[in-house]
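Progress report, Aim 2. The chain analyzed during this reporting quarter is listed below.
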Amino acid sequence: MVTSPEPIEAVSQRLDKFLSDQLSYASSLGPEAETMSRAGAASLRGGKRLRARFCLTGWRAVIESSGARDTSLTPAAVSVAAALEIFQAAALVHDDIIDNSDTRRGQPAAHRALEAAHAAAGWTGDAAMFGRSGAVLLGDLLVAWSDDLLEEALADQSTAAATRRFYADMRRDVTIGQFLDVAEESAYAVYPDEEHAERALRVASYKSARYSIQKPLEIGAAFAGADDEQLDALGRFGHDVGMAFQLRDDVLGVFGDTAVTGKPVGDDLREGKRTVLVAFAREALPAPARRTVDELLGDAELDAAQISALQNTIVDTGALARTEELIADYSRRADRALAGARLGDAAVGELRDLARAATQRSS
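Predicted structure tokens for the chain:
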């Protein structure tokens, strides 16, 4: 059994051990391979460990409901949760390339860190191109690491097949969701304005809600041997919390404090994200003002005054208030999904605490 009483500390310890093994292997291949592996390890520093938290709490919710005397975390459960964190790191590395983001958690994004490593080493060629190419491969390496750790955890486990199924669903959905997000920045123009909010919610569901909370919960529950009823309750709860989580992320992407979020203020506006906030704002604007918004969105050179003008538009049209109402509605629905579910009481209480932390946050 894991001796630490803190689940996230246990996950961090497992990640440290796994990364140490990977770095030891890479060092035997030479300094270039070590540079790549160290960049992978760096990508796992910090963060909320949200997916690990929901995974382990879903696991506990099922274990507690079974009447088991010992509900302590097992090393295998911790490894499954740690694998999710590695997969998250892979997604962020690729996401930052797609979004041309220079920073992540207040530090250089992986492609920028690799670009700097190229320059510092005095190598020939285009450092920026090297950084982007290296980060694409780094993301792939992190996916492989995630698979390796998951399979290690599932060895000789009776629930391995069910766990793999939910893990595969997560990987498929987030990849499709990421593409939908990228596509929507261009595809929105050929769809009626009144459909934009619904399309933004579809992106939020596949890119974030399922991947960030619903699937980690279901993965943990499946690993614990959950039945269909338990999986249904946790799945409905997780999806609605995940939607509220992503909508909060959308709000922070426009209005967040850089000192807290670690990302430039208004970054989503510069990236041209077609979020529900934007859809709601456009619905309320006359055609000329809507065209002005469309011209500004996605301009990487937006200055502080232009960001402020777009923020004011989102507030003045009532789009921010409508989004906050939607967050509250998803949160209420999530809470109802757990009512009467055959799950451990202590874990259910923790799930509700996690839901509040995920949806009422400033970073």
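Residues 240 and 332 are 9 Å apart (CA to CA). Residues 1-42+74-157 form a domain with the Farnesyl Diphosphate Synthase fold (CATH 1.10.600.10). These observations will guide the mutagenesis work planned for the next reporting period.
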